[in-house]
Amino acid sequence: MKAVFLIGLGGASGSILRYFVYLLFSRYFGLIYPMQTLFVNITGCLLMGILIELFNTKIGLNHDLRYFLLVGFLGGFTTFSAFSSDFFNFIQLGNVLNAFIYIFISVFLSIFAFFIGVYIVKVISI
């Protein structure tokens, strides 16, 4: 039951932060659709890589922290459903090329960011 509570608390926190990121992008950069989703997904993957490498090699496995941060917080912060909706909206607007460019950039940069996160922890002594 403790794990469920930690995941829920982390998920709520991550979702709230994602909402604030969307507000900041809209306020300071104009509504640059779908850059908000791209940013949270890439940033979330970078953080996932950093945290997984930290848990696996530097600070040991802490199940409570893992549930809260990896499953809950980053699960709530990143959003595959918004990514799917963005793709659908591009298609609906007839921007098929942009839709597939968005898929490529999102997937490639998110996976690349994950590996960069792992690399950062391996190189920097934390």
Structural write-up:
With 126 residues, the protein is an all-alpha fold. It has one domain (2-123). Helices cover 86% and strands 0% of the residues. It has helices at residues 2-29, 35-58, 63-77, 80-92, 96-123. The protein is globular and about 50 Å long.
Strand and helix map with partners:
Elements: H1 2-29, H2 35-58, H3 63-77, H4 80-92, H5 96-123
Helix pairs in contact: 1-2, 1-3, 2-3, 2-5, 4-5
- List low-pLDDT spans: none
Portion in helices: over 70%
Helix-strand makeup class: mainly alpha
Shape: globular
The portion of residues forming beta strands comes to under 5%
Structure at a glance:
This protein is an all-alpha fold and 126 residues long.
List key phrases describing it:
0% strand; 126 residues; globular
